[in-house]
């Protein structure tokens, strides 16, 4: 607490001093307006920092940026009604107070002491520079620049370590896979000294398999979709380097080779079951991109419940999810094809957890902590689900992987975890081997996909991950090199998002508001940058509102000497002179010569390569 006060004190002190000086000396309105605008910006930035910090415990971090870019559709807003209410009240109160102090007692004279004015603005400028959001953004920028501008040697080195080949040798009689992601259930909760008798049932199951005790958290993997990406694809989750709003992407890391891609190639049927809305943070799009045949989230699973009101803000309770998952397991096992069944739980979601009704009477000690109660409940439910699989007639042909998706985020249990030597959870159970074994090889969630492959009897590595069963000095040296250099490989990893090349047609589907390039589809509005070979980079607006089309218009008009571009949007956003009520679509071509050509679209329209090259002045 003391460290936090020291961290925030310079900003609070300088900001309060500046407002005090404005109020004390009644600076004239003409001089006060710039300060008022800057004060509003400061209040907004401060609010953003504290709201982000509520979730991350680390201010504005990479997960914050990811969700700003991808959107928050499907989030459990009911969990945060108190936060939303308090934030709005704080903002309104701050704005009212600032307005009152600056303008209520305005000095009627036109001028005030130059020294006082300079002093006041100096404090206000300092408070801006010392704002915690500015520190957060500067830290992120520095980290991102390091990632994107790593040395040429380090960047070219990436391809010596990244395994992106889908071709893997298939062994005889591969088994089925049940992969359980338990929300935030890190291995730290297994520590009996920190949490006596919190985890009991899962500890008993450890004797049936192999436990990996040293799974750390790699950079850019510390939230759910980041943890899934790292364990499935062996890479940290870098977003595209072009700053796009990612909700408009039609695929999720299409050029990455992930566990699902490999299993699909091996003939597996792939199913994902998650209690939350699978659109949140792009989970559904991720699994759909990487080979999954069925992707079922809250909206698909709720109708399967007898009581469809038995749900919370995020989605299904875990007892409902596991009941559906076990039925699915039995159904898939009865078929003659290999399958992978992936589940993602919810009950232990921060900040307070959601304990299922099936263990409503179970509480963890006398802590009066709902999240720890949910952890205790999850221990029993996850263990019961695993035990039911092991007791089934299909157990001998099933491998079970249990892991945490990431470390626990800021919650009402954070004080228990703070300062601990934290590790992620990874247990693998194969009824035919690995009895009561512990492996203390230092790894991260990046290594989990490669390790699962080896257990399934499929040779190969995934991404930057390495098989945790391989304890050789050579592999250990490789892991160390990857850990030391991963911060320099941001650009290469970002390229795995990929964009298509125009090899035939550029289609504009007005009815469905999409642009088609080959088999890829992108939501309108969209700005397409091209090179001379018609390779594309797709750019989208930062907001979903159509007013954001102005961003694209400004961009296409401002960069007259840059790459050729095609812009598709409503006509009123492309041409400022268009009637504001005009709801038609237009397409604009800006060629290498800087000439802008606008066309109204009355029907679905297709452009072919010769026409595109002519419009864009590409030889």
Indicate the structural class. alpha/beta
Characterize the quaternary organization of these chains. Answer: single chain
| Residue-averaged pLDDT | 85
> Any idea what the radius of gyration is?
27 Å
Question: How much of the residues is beta strand, in percent?
Answer: 5-15%
Structural shape: globular
Q: Which parts are unreliable, with pLDDT below 50 for 5 consecutive residues or more?
A: 542-549
Q: What is the H level of CATH, i.e. the homologous superfamily of the largest domain?
A: Alkaline Phosphatase, subunit A
- How would you characterize the largest beta sheet? 8 strands, mixed
- Determine the CATH topology of the largest domain: Alkaline Phosphatase, subunit A
- By DSSP, the count of extended strands is 19
Distance between the termini: 64 Å
The percent range for helix content is: 40-55%
Spatial strand order of the main sheet: 5-4-6-1-7-8-2-9
Question: Could you say what the CATH architecture of the largest domain is?
Answer: 3-Layer(aba) Sandwich
**Domains, number:** 3
Under CATH at level 1, the class of the largest domain stands as: Alpha Beta
| Structure annotation, total helices | 21
């Amino acid at each position: 607490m003391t460290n936090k006060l020291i961290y925030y004190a310079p900003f609070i002190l300088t900001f309060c001093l500046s407002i005090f000086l404005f109020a004390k000396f009644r600076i004239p309105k003409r001089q006060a307006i710039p300060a008022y605008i800057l004060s509003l910006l400061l209040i907004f930035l401060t609010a953003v920092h504290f709201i982000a910090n509520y979730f991350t415990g680390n201010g504005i971090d990479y997960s914050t940026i990811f969700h700003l870019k991808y959107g928050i559709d499907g989030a459990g807003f009911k969990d945060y009604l108190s936060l939303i209410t308090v934030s709005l009240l704080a903002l309104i109160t701050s704005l009212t107070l600032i307005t009152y102090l600056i303008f209520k007692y305005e000095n009627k004279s036109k001028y005030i002491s130059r020294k006082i004015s300079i002093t006041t603005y100096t404090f206000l400028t300092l408070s801006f520079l010392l704002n915690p959001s500015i520190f957060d953004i500067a830290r992120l920028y520095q980290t991102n620049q390091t990632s994107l501008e790593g040395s040429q040697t380090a960047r070219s080195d990436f391809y010596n370590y990244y395994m992106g080949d889908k071709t893997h040798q298939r062994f005889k009689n591969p088994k089925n896979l049940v992969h359980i992601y338990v929300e935030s259930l890190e291995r730290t909760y297994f520590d009996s000294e920190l949490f006596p008798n919190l985890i009991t049932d899962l500890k008993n199951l450890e004797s049936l398999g192999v436990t990996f005790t040293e799974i750390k958290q790699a950079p850019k993997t510390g939230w759910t979709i980041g943890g899934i990406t790292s364990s499935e694809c062996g890479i940290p989750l870098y977003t595209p380097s072009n700053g796009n709003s990612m909700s408009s992407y039609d695929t999720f890391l299409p050029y990455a080779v992930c566990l699902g891609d490999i299993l699909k190639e091996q003939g597996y049927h792939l199913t994902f079951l998650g209690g939350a809305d699978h659109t949140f943070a792009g989970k559904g799009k991720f699994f759909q991109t990487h080979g999954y045949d069925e992707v079922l989230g809250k909206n698909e699973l709720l109708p399967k419940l007898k009581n469809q009101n038995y749900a919370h803000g995020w989605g299904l309770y875990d007892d409902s999810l596991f009941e559906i998952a076990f039925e699915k397991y039995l159904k898939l096992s009865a078929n003659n094809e290999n399958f992978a069944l992936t589940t993602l739980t919810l009950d232990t979601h921060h900040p307070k957890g959601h304990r299922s009704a099936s263990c409503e009477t179970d509480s963890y000690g006398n802590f009066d902590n709902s999240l720890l109660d949910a952890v205790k409940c999850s221990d029993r439910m996850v263990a019961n689900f695993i035990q039911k699989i092991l007791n089934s007639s299909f157990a001998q042909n099933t491998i079970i992987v249990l892991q945490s998706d990431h470390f626990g985020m800021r919650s009402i249990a954070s004080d228990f975890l703070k300062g601990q030597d934290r590790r992620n959870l990874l247990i693998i159970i194969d009824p035919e081997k690995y009895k009561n074994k512990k492996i203390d090889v230092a790894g991260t969630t990046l290594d989990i996909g490669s390790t699962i492959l080896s257990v399934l009897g499929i040779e190969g590595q995934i991404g930057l991950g390495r098989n945790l069963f391989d304890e050789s000095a050579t592999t250990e040296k490789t892991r160390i090199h990857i850990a030391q250099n991963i911060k320099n490989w941001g650009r290469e990893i970002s390229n795995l998002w990929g964009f298509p090349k125009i090899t035939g047609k550029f289609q504009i589907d007005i009815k469905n508001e999409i642009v088609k390039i080959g088999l890829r589809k992108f939501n309108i509005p969209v700005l397409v940058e091209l090179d001379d070979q018609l390779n594309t980079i797709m750019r989208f607006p930062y907001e979903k509102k159509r007013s954001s089309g102005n961003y694209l218009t400004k961009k296409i008009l401002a960069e007259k000497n840059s790459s050729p571009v095609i812009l598709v949007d409503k006509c009123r956003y492309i041409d400022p002179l268009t009637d504001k009520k005009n709801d038609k679509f237009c397409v604009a071509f800006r060629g290498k010569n800087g000439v802008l050509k606008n066309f109204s679209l009355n029907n679905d329209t297709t452009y072919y390569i010769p026409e595109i090259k002519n419009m864009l002045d590409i030889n």
